[in-house]
Amino acid sequence: MATTTTTETAAGFDLSLTAEQELVQRTARDFAREKVLPRAAEIDEQKKIPRELIDEMARLGFMGIDVPEQYGGSGLDSLTYVLVVEEINRACASTGVVLCTHVSLAIEPILRWGSDAQKEKWLPPLARGESIGCFALSEPASGSDAAAMRTSARRDGDAWLLNGTKNFITNGAIADVAIVFAQTDASLKHKGIAAFVVEKGTKGFSVGKLEKKLGIRGSDTAQLVFQECRVPDANLIGSVGEGFKIALSTLDGGRVGIAAQAVGIARACLEDALAYAKEREAFGKKISEFQAIQWKLADMATEIDAARLLTWKAATLKDRREPFILEAAEAKLFASDVAVKAGRECVQIFGGYGYLTDFPAERHYRDAKITEIYEGTSEIMKLVIAEEVLKQ
């Protein structure tokens, strides 16, 4: 199903795509269909993404899609990014989340908050896909309540000693660069949090437990352990008290990417259910001729288009450097709900076959659920939306 290329929202946002954006979209779609989709079931079963797929995304410029050309990136905008994210996730959500985490969560803090020296050091290898990034905020005892983190950073001369454990870190096992948040002064709570770049191989930094997950099984989710991990002061992003602000602003942007991921998963559900409904026969006719099935498909198609428009609007506001916290939260809340519902209906349309791993429906359903949880649960999204609305 081709994405609509020209749309208008009630708010008057012209969301038509440029020729360049359409080209990137087609490139991502072709790559996803030809290279990723044929291996999606294998990736899920083997719980591993072939490195050549990540390398190919890098070659196409996706791993550094929003990094300026001077740092080796493609220099494209957020709307183009979400177009790519939707296409990759339509094929394989595991592969898609590697891209989302790398671009939205690992690169963004350096790009937005890093010094010139930090940008020159870390952005080029990240943009070229030579290094993979991750974002280490959550901990075993603090997920949504990120300010309650226990990982500490203690100054030691011209460096910092990090101690603690990070949990549920996407790309944690394969990452070469981690954006790590730590508490420098517990009495200051969120105002004492700092952000650091920690490189793989740093003494005292290790990968702990690898999680076994319901969905997105091909992407690794790991614990990261810091034991007297010495990090140079030059690796501090921004100032000591800015860590929490950096984390929240990064997540605001990341939610646009997760909304696009949810749209991609939902689209996979619709396209696969539609193809199956046109082939499967019951009571002497195609099941697509039954109104019960038609209504499911109609709801899926309508909700997916609505979710896509919300996502495009949030991305467009971000590109304009206008406030987009509300729109990002709305997009993620709605799109993730749409993805989960589409997954459920996809399984239902497939019937008994939808429950089998031989068919993609059950994988889509499993993959969809995480979009309601990471980078801000649906409950947190409602709190964010309410807070923004009450300001008006």
List the helices and strands and how they pair.
Layout: H1 19-36, H2 40-46, H3 51-59, H4 78-91, H5 93-113, H6 116-127, E1 133-136, E2 152-156, E3 159-170, E4 177-183, E5 193-199, E6 205-210, E7 221-232, E8 236-237, H7 243-279, E9 281-282, E10 285-286, H8 291-319, H9 325-350, H10 361-369, H11 378-390
Parallel strand pairs: 1-4
Antiparallel strand pairs: 2-3, 3-7, 4-5, 5-8, 6-7, 9-10
Short description:
The protein is an alpha+beta fold. It folds into three domains: 19-132, Butyryl-Coa Dehydrogenase, subunit A, domain 1, CATH 1.10.540.10; 134-243, Butyryl-CoA Dehydrogenase, subunit A, domain 2, CATH 2.40.110; 245-390, Up-down Bundle (Butyryl-CoA Dehydrogenase, subunit A, domain 3). The protein has helices at residues 19-36, 40-46, 51-59, 78-91, 93-113, 116-127, 243-279, 291-319, 325-350, 361-369, 378-390; strands at residues 133-136, 152-156, 159-170, 177-183, 193-199, 205-210, 221-232, 236-237, 281-282, 285-286.
